[in-house]
Design a protein that fits this description.
304 residues, alpha/beta
Length: 304
């Protein structure tokens, strides 16, 4: 099939390349003309230097896959596309949009008879070679047009992707997917820190990660990546212990609260990321002060 890839960051560029290798025609547009030109030369992408030019190079029914940051950038691009497209055309949001925004956008586009599909996409930088896991929301009619591209992007035509429900459901499932990811990552991080703290055993953490990768019930792709990270420097001396979050973990916790569903592991893992960003914790200081007040426990004085 033919489609436009709007946004050629790392994920969008890799997806465009996988589609081209699979025999699809891809028109690509990025705010950076340099990025667009590089991918055109490297992968055979058909370059476009504006949204209007990208749409103009598509045959009807047209399909535009949006891969830009969630929030205002996605809102702006979808609104611009909606003004250029015709009834029967298709917009795909493959980013990490909040599912409530997705439902709203789908309703607005439906009034213009423009199809809309939300594709929660997982695979990161490895997706080009390994394929992408995709959680798809939208109507059956919209999905039928997009199916050839999804089958090419996935690890297999019938593996790693699926139509999970109506508009918004794809991004909802991806949100929960990322919340689970937070919890898994936190469990691995805590376990390896416990082993590192056992000085008397002098454990080789990379060796242990490699042992666990095969046959263990805790083996996973995240463990594979952990082993990669530990291979050269177990002390991770070049990395600051500051962990960002892109929003999906927060949304998962909010949803759990709204639905009265207990989610202590995911919630704790999100809080742990917040802790990682504090150079010094005021709460920890206050805890030390309270112990000193009621029990006379010694406190460590700040330097200077």
């Amino acid at each position: 099939m033919q489609l436009a890839m709007i946004g050629l960051g790392k994920m969008g560029a890799n997806m465009a390349q996988r589609l081209i290798k699979g025999g699809h025609q891809v028109v690509g547009y990025d705010r950076s003309a340099k990025t667009t030109d590089a991918l055109a030369a490297e992968a055979g992408l058909t370059p476009a230097y504006s949204l209007a030019e990208a749409v103009g190079k598509l045959e009807q029914p047209r399909a535009a896959w949006v891969m830009v940051p969630a929030g205002e950038p996605t809102e702006s691009v979808i609104n611009e596309l909606a003004a250029m497209l015709s009834p029967g055309d298709l917009i795909i949001d493959g980013g990490n949009s909040n599912y409530k925004d997705t439902m709203r956008r789908a309703a607005v586009l439906a009034e213009k008879n423009i199809n809309f599909v939300d594709v929660g996409t997982s695979g990161g930088v490895w997706g080009l070679a390994e394929g992408y896991s995709m959680m798809v929301g939208g109507s059956d009619a919209a999905l039928s047009h997009l199916r050839p591209a999804l089958e090419t992007l996935a690890p297999g035509a019938d593996l790693g992707w699926g139509h999970v429900g109506p508009s918004g459901s794809g991004h909802f499932v991806k949100m929960v997917h990322n919340g689970i990811e937070y919890g898994l990552m936190q469990a691995y991080a805590e376990g390896f820190e416990i082993m590192r703290a056992k000085d008397s055993f002098s454990l080789d953490l990379h060796q242990i990660a490699e042992i666990w990768r095969f046959g263990s019930v805790v083996r996973s792709w995240l463990l594979d990546l952990t082993a990669n990270a530990l291979a050269d420097d177990q002390e991770l001396s070049d990395i600051k212990g500051y962990v960002s979050d892109s929003g999906e973990g927060r949304w998962t916790v909010f949803e759990a609260i709204d639905l009265d569903v207990p989610a202590p592991v995911i919630t704790h893992s999100l809080m742990a990321r917040f802790v990682s960003r504090q150079d010094e914790s005021y709460a920890a200081k206050l805890l030390a002060a309270m112990r000193n007040q009621f029990g006379g426990h010694a406190v460590k004085k700040a330097d200077g």
